[in-house]
Structures are given as C-alpha cells and as structure tokens.
Design a protein that fits this description.
Blueprint (H helix, E strand, L loop, with lengths): L1 H24 L56 H10 L17 H10 L20
Helix pairs in contact: 2-3
Bound molecules: calcium ion (4 copies).
The site of one calcium ion has 7 residues, from loops.
Length: 138
C-alpha cells in the first residue's frame, strides 16, 4: 500500500514537472494568444487575444504562412516589390483576400498605402515552419 502511494506521488511529481517544462517551452513573443510556433506573424500581435490595428485575427488570405498583418508580398517571391504594388492596384475594389491587408473585406486605399510603405521589405516574420510555401497552414 505504501509503495502504491509512493508510486502515485512520483507520478504526480513527474506529471507536474513535465507540464512545467511544457509551459516553459511555449513562447508568445507578441502576447496575442498564439504561441510563436503557430503564429503567422510572430512578432506582431494579430489576434485572437490581442488584435492588430486592423482586426486580422491570424487571417492569411493567400495561405502562405504569413498573416495578412505582416504580408504584402502578393507575388509570393518573398520580397515586397513592384509586382506586389501592381497586384494591389489591380485588386482595388475587389474582395481579394490576399490583397485585403487590413482584413475589412475590401481591397481599398488603406491596403494600397500599407503596400507602398512596406516596399523593399519582406513578409513576416512568421513562426510557422512552412511559411513562404503555399499552402502553409499550422
Ligand atoms: Ca503570438
Ligand atoms: Ca502574432
Ligand atoms: Ca499570407
Ligand atoms: Ca513580391
């Protein structure tokens, strides 16, 4: 009986130790409620707990593993460049989910302004390992 209790205590201790290790290994850099390894913009809060300024909530319109909140690379060549600007210009007035950077259901002036401001940069960073290839979902 005493042995059973000792084994039971050891099991509880082992469980709590492994749970502690598990909790310690989860990093959420932007504290938006999504662990970095699953967060499609891991240094920019984009929901669900803390939304970005545009309420994207992890939205990833082109399913490349980079959330819209940190992805204006519409041509998917991993550079924010002229083709992306041409793409967003061409998508103005549509509901193209990839070009709708602000996640408001329409491609409009704010999306164009964000693409202009991000030229020369790169999408991300994303915590999702397959980011940059399509389809990529955690
Ligand atoms: Ca996060
Ligand atoms: Ca995020
Ligand atoms: Ca994307
Ligand atoms: Ca591009």
């Amino acid at each position: 009986m005493r042995n059973l209790i000792v084994i039971g205590c050891a099991t509880v201790l082992a469980l709590s130790l492994s749970m502690g290790a598990f909790a310690g290994s989860i990093t959420d850099t932007d504290t938006d409620g999504v662990p970095d390894s699953l967060d499609n913009c891991d240094v920019l809060a984009n929901g669900p707990l803390v939304a970005d300024s545009n309420n994207c909530f992890q939205t990833d319109g082109d399913q490349d593993g980079y959330g819209n909140a940190c992805d204006v690379d519409l041509s998917n060549n991993n550079v924010n460049d002229l083709p992306d600007l041409i793409d967003v210009l061409g998508a103005l007035g549509t509901a193209d989910p990839a070009a709708d950077i602000t996640c408001n259901g329409a491609v409009d002036l704010p999306d164009l302004i964000i693409v202009l401001g991000a030229l020369g940069g790169a999408p991300g960073p994303s915590g999702i390992g397959c980011a940059g290839s399509i389809p990529c979902t955690p």
